[in-house]
């Protein structure tokens, strides 16, 4: 018969804790090729923590404030493309409103770099509002 060892966790952390936990660190080029979902590391290129989502490494947002940028345009019934003042990372990181109506990303508009392209031209004199800056935070 074999021996069986049953482990039970009976100890807990008590009292004040000082110090910290060191996580693996390295450049983006040094990311592990065999990373699995939940792998956490510090990216020395971006100075951010990142976690593997099962496919890619995503930056863990910092606690802090975001700087929201507002672009405003006026539709003329024929123009479908507008240039934003900054380049958002994706169409899902901006909020677009035409005449105070929210526009669905990928359906009502697409984004390529800083160019916002509507699937149909916003109506004449309708105000177009684009809010962006939701994709990053900075410690205040």
Give the strand content.
25-35%
Report the principal-axis shape.
Answer: elongated
Oligomer: single chain
Tally of helical runs: 0
N/C terminus separation? 62 Å
Describe the structure.
This protein has about 140 residues and is mainly beta. It has 2 domains: about 25-60, no CATH class; about 70-130. It contains no helices and 11 strands. The strands form 3 sheets. The protein has a 4-stranded mixed β-sheet with strand order 1-2-3-4, with no helix packed on it. A 4-stranded antiparallel β-sheet has the order 5-11-7-8, with no helix packed on it. A 3-stranded antiparallel β-sheet has the order 6-10-9, with no helix packed on it. Strand 7 and strand 8 (about 100) form a beta hairpin.
Task: Considering the chains and any ligands shown, give keywords for the structure.
elongated; 2 domains; 140 residues; four-stranded mixed sheet; four-stranded antiparallel sheet; mainly beta
What's the short story on this structure?
This protein is mainly beta and 140 residues long.
Secondary structure elements and pairings:
Blueprint: E1 25-26, E2 40-43, E3 48-52, E4 57-59, E5 69-74, E6 81-83, E7 94-98, E8 101-102, E9 109-112, E10 115-118, E11 127-132
């Amino acid at each position: 018969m074999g021996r069986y060892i049953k482990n039970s966790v009976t100890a807990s952390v008590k009292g004040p804790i000082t110090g910290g936990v060191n996580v693996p660190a390295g450049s983006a080029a040094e990311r592990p090729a065999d990373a699995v979902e939940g792998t956490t590391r510090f990216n020395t290129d971006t100075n951010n923590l990142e976690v593997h989502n099962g496919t890619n490494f995503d930056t863990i947002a910092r606690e802090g404030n975001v700087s929201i940028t507002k672009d405003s345009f006026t539709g003329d019934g024929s123009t479908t493309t507008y240039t934003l003042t900054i380049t958002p990372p994706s169409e899902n990181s901006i909020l677009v409103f035409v005449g105070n109506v929210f526009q669905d990303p990928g359906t009502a508009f697409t984004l390529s770099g800083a160019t916002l392209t509507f699937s149909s031209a916003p109506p004449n004199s309708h105000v177009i509002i684009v809010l962006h800056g939701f994709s990053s935070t900075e410690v205040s």
